[in-house]
Amino acid sequence: MPRNNTFPVDPGWRPLLKDLGIRSDTLLRRAGLPEELLARPNNGLTTAEYFRFWEALQAEAGDPLLPLRLVEAIQAESFIPPIFAALCSANMLQAGQRLSTYKKLIAPMTLAVDVGRDGALTLTPHWLEAQAQVPFVVMASELAFLLRLARLATREPVAALRVTMPQLPARAQAKAYAKFFGVAPREGDAASIGFTAIDAKRPFLTANDAMWQVFEPELRKRLGELDANANTAERVRSALLELLPGGQSGIEAVAARLSMSKRTLQRRLEIERQRISTVIGKYAVNRRAVAIVAMLGLLALLLSDRSWLHGVAAGLLTLVIAQVLVDHYSQERAEAYLMAMSSPDKSRVETR
To answer: What is the pTM of this model?
Structure first.
């Protein structure tokens, strides 16, 4: 992982650890991290180091219910910038949107915000650069924090509409988690928490737009400094991870996501000797191939039309070949191949 893919450690950890009765020096030694980390948090952590920090925290606490104990220690008066920004919001929907933008100032993650047709809100954390399974303590703490935030800000005993986790709590702790969330967590592909439409729009008693107007410029400045540490190609790839599930992969969509013009994006990639079409094309082709693999596995169970299945398999093979051309030759050759495969006369297609 490149050195610049690190995330600041918020100073708020020091009083929080003291409240939990955990020695920071012992914790950091167990995690294999510099003992001066919390004194000089700008050094930052990679995602792998962040996960080690949490696993060491779990070990030092010796408490399987640490995520619940931890979030209960967070108070409305806690001055952790992204959390403060969320508390200044009008409601949970706006708080989720602000956390989606600013959460990576204190953790290697973003937050996907989805509002259903019925107005129900679903918040799904995504951990950036995660190369391994997200530790349960990290996942559970994040979901518990989001519910704690809603309760702190509304001063109401808000219950989750639903909670999903790839890894469920151990049976001995299952009742405690169900009691905290107001619903038993269910197994799912991703960690997420849902709120009813009423709770999503329930007014925050901590809302303070005047304070937010004063505070926002500093948050944006810090976010800009963090983003500046990542090269443009890495930022494009991160943007694509969020855009591709919605069917967007164009240059305009990526530029808008990164809050810059198409021309500026192209210029920055040229400085890094990257081509926007190559960066976007490679990841878009990859995503299409994965999507077709998933569809093929599901629909093969439902359909018996072999000619249709052969057509899907041929389409998958086409995308795989295009991916190889991107990886080993050039984007132009991949595009030429895909264009040729889409024409009626495929007899002249060459992949050499």
So the answer is: 0.64
